[in-house]
Amino acid sequence: MDTRAKFKQYEMDQPQLLPPSLDELIPEKHIVRVINELIDQLDLEAIESSYKGGGTSSYHPRMLLKLIVYAYAEKNYSGHQIAKLVRENIHYMWLSGGNRPDFRTINRFRSERLKGKIQGVFTEVLEKLIEGGYVKLEHYFLDGTKIEANANRYSFVWKKSTHNRRKQLEQKVSELFEKIDRLQAEEDAEYGDEDLEELGGDKGLDSEG
After folding, report:
1. What is the pLDDT of residues 74-121, one digit of tens each?
2. Which of 31, 65, 66, 167 has the least C-beta neighbours within 10 A?
3. Quick one: CA torsion of 51, 53, 56, 57, rounded to 10 degrees?
4. How far is CA 189 from the centre of its chain?
5. d(Cα 120, Cα 173) in Å, to the nearest integer?
6. Residue 197 has what DSSP assignment?
7. What's the CA angle centered on 103, arms 100 and 106, to 5 degrees?
8. Nearest Cα to 29, choosing from 19, 20, 37, 41?
9. DSSP 8-class letter at 146
């Protein structure tokens, strides 16, 4: 009797006739799809109208907004880290539609185009995620627990009135964005105009506003 351990086949770089699309790799009820749908419903005329006509083309503001909101929902607040995730993570790749904005573009978009708007947008999206059972308020803001990307969780019930819970959420998000501003300032001081070490400076990524 053969008592040796058995392992599943493992072979890297196996050729595939039809490689899977990113959409096929993302579960139907994943939170990234929810955020994608929510952002698609927003009127972004005020943001789009801030772009000047002519010149080189710009990354679509709806795509950039989706990346930033999804990153914030996953507690990724660093422009450098978001840019890295766009290169490495299938959920961010799917949202970006194959675009690869660098950290300069991401930071410029959220500090200039989204100035005075991103906090309200994120509050609205986060409230929808909480109501849908994708996020627990106390987990997101207090104990660092990752988001529960489970579309079947609808048991979370806020104990206070709608008005009070909205005020509570707005206060929490306001405090969060103060933290994000500090983190961005610290990151700018540490990295300056350089990418994360794993990429090593400018290597084929273009920035624009």
Report:
1. 999 999 999 999 999 999 999 999 999 999 999 999 999 998 899 999
2. 167
3. 60
4. 23
5. 9
6. T
7. 80
8. 37
9. P
Widest Cα–Cα separation across the chain = 75
- Locus of tokens 């927003």: 42
Whole-model pTM: value is 0.78
Q: Grade residue 163 by pLDDT with cuts at 50, 70 and 90.
A: low
Contact predicate 125/172, CB 8 Å: no
**How far apart are alpha carbons 160 and 176 in whole angstroms?**
21
50 alpha carbon, distance to own chain's centre = 22
Cβ-defined contacts of 181-189 (< 8 Å, 24+): 183/77, 183/78, 184/77, 184/78, 184/79, 184/107, 184/111, 187/78, 187/79, 187/80
